[in-house]
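Protein in question quoted for reference:
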Amino acid sequence: MKSLRLILSTPRYFAPAFVFTSLNIWFGTWAIYIPTIKEKLGINKADLGIALFCLSIGVFTIFPIASKIINKLGVGKATWYSVVLCSVTALFPFLAPNYYLLMGSLFLFGMSHGLLDISMNTLVTEIEKEDKQNFMTAAHGFFSLGGILVGLGSFLIPVIGNPVLHMGITAVLIFILNLFIRKNYVDVVAAPMDKEPFSLKLFKPLFLLGLIGFLAFGGEGAIIDWSGLYLKEVALAPEVLIGSGFLAFSAAMTLGRFLGDGISARIGSVKIVMLGAVIAAIGFLFVLSEDTVLAIVGFALNGLGFSVIIPELFRIGGNIKGIDSAKGVSFIAGTGYSGFLLGPVILGFLAESASLKHCFYALLGCILLVFGATALLRKNKV
């Protein structure tokens, strides 16, 4: 909890951590109104899927050029400008009068979302380098907190009674808070580094990090999408407990992220990723027992294990010798989001052709691959 206390007591660390919270609040508020917007525009599930894919395209469109934008503006200014863009574009889907403008709105929101994601992770990486303090994992804990705040805010839906007003109030409040605290990070720039020609020596750690990111993000996305259905159809959980797997996963992930920096500082980023993979693997064994209580405990262990993997990947990616931090973070984000988007889809086909339980065997295999790939990273002293 040392890093949590550090963030709460130090504006220099709290300001970027709150950006993480902000991003999840904007995205989560959009997410809880997806059914309402679908009904308002009279679109079917297939149309909605295409519209959501436009958001993903927006995210991926920005990834190849994000590092150039960040290096040109400075990571602090890039983060602030991305906050401004997200504050504005988060409203666009709510204002879209038809399906085609909804797709365009989500594309723009996705671009803003992607740029902010890379900027804020690069920002924390640079501050960690300057101050020799670890708070990346705790910053991701603040991202998880944003989701919890959105969940609590969902109780206001019947009170406010207007999606545009709800998002408008949210966007304005978050913007104002960021406006007051931006001075703590806006002048941060990436440390200059000597250019090093790209070589196989650099490709190997990047490839391994990309593989780990793809598998870890994919596993996290699959648990979010499939945990409830698994409890219902495989573990035969009563209806009241169907959402318990996701709740246990989210709560354990938040806790793990607030504890992770202290452990990482003691044992190192690579070892903590390996430890997280082991804990997540044990969690999958519990889930595969098909017992309701053990499965819920398993999802909690999944959350605890996955909680440290992704933040530590960003930390490692931002510190590879010979690659500037923005490019390293962009690469992790790109491969990771590919897994987050494609993983649940691939597992959906597997569930349809085989069974849902086979999906979780596949996820167990993926987390074991994460352990193996991380062991190779350790061998290469990344």
In short: The chain has 16 helices and no strands.
